[in-house]
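User: Predict structure, ligand flavin-adenine dinucleotide.
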Amino acid sequence: MKPPRFEYLAPVSVEETLGLLGDLGERAKVLAGGQSLVPLLNFRLVRPEHLVDLNGLAELNGIREDDGHLVIGAMTRQRAVERSALVRERCPLLAEAMPQIGHVQIRNRGTVGGSLAHADPAAELPAVVAALDGRLVLRSARGQRVLTSEQFFVAYFTTAAAPAELLVEVRLPMMPPRTGSAFMEISRRHGDFALVGVAATLTLDESGVCTASALALTGVGRTPVVAREAARALVGVRPTAEALAEVGRRVAAAVEPDSDLHASREYRIHLAGVLTRRALARAAERATGAP
Ligand SMILES: Cc1cc2nc3c(=O)[nH]c(=O)nc-3n(C[C@H](O)[C@H](O)[C@H](O)COP(=O)(O)OP(=O)(O)OC[C@H]3O[C@@H](n4cnc5c(N)ncnc54)[C@H](O)[C@@H]3O)c2cc1C
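Assistant: Predicted complex:
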């Protein structure tokens, strides 16, 4: 199918874009990498009257360090994040998740902002942002809002962003010393969306006791699922095999995935437990300096 008729608009600044979105409201959709939006248009699942192309907005493209945070502009291509030495050094969890998004051709066009705004509950980036307690920065002609991932992701393919709001950047806190992380997922074939994925971080003190841990899962709910209680069980103890297995059991008991044509609810619950244990074990190894 071909997309329905729309007016194509190509603003050259964020200010101009915000003005357009403020005027057009729900009648407009923004176009980032087009990897999700163009199929939706072609299947006529969305029918905007106006398509506002963000690809001319150089201001939204780039990765920088700012005050203990890694700041990534919404129009930064996923492949640029994957190849960034700064990301590898400052945010290895994100670096590990990136190559697991689709295929390289998709990451060449797909953007960080597009993936987050699309809010697919099986996507990798939302879980990484949730595990790191990142912030999503939204702008409109009326001002700026900064949301946590739990505020931003509302339901399947639904965020708290209003039609007149643009996601402009994501801010990820850099990980403290002696912190390890791991992103693990299972998908049916390389490049497919994950059936289940786990983003894990774990911080150890000098004696090897866990002082902090975070877990976020993809593919087990309507949004990325933060397993806060389960991760808290590790704080104050050594990450032994038994302690990690217990966290895996807690996560498996807490998640409530749906069955679909890709996997049953039971299999997803099983994967959530196993991947949690494995991801935490790898994060713990890395926290001690293992590569
Ligand atoms: C075959 C295939 C396999 C894929 N596999 C995976 C995978 O394994 N994991 C994964 O995470 N993704 C996967 N994707 C999706 C891919 O990551 C897309 O790049 C991503 O979902 C959307 O990014 P985009 O830049 O292409 O956004 P677009 O498709 O241009 O836009 C997506 C949506 O977000 C909105 N939007 C975009 N940018 C903004 C913004 N700055 N502010 C507000 N709203 C905005 C658009 O209006 C639209 O509603 C796959 C895609 C394909 C085609």
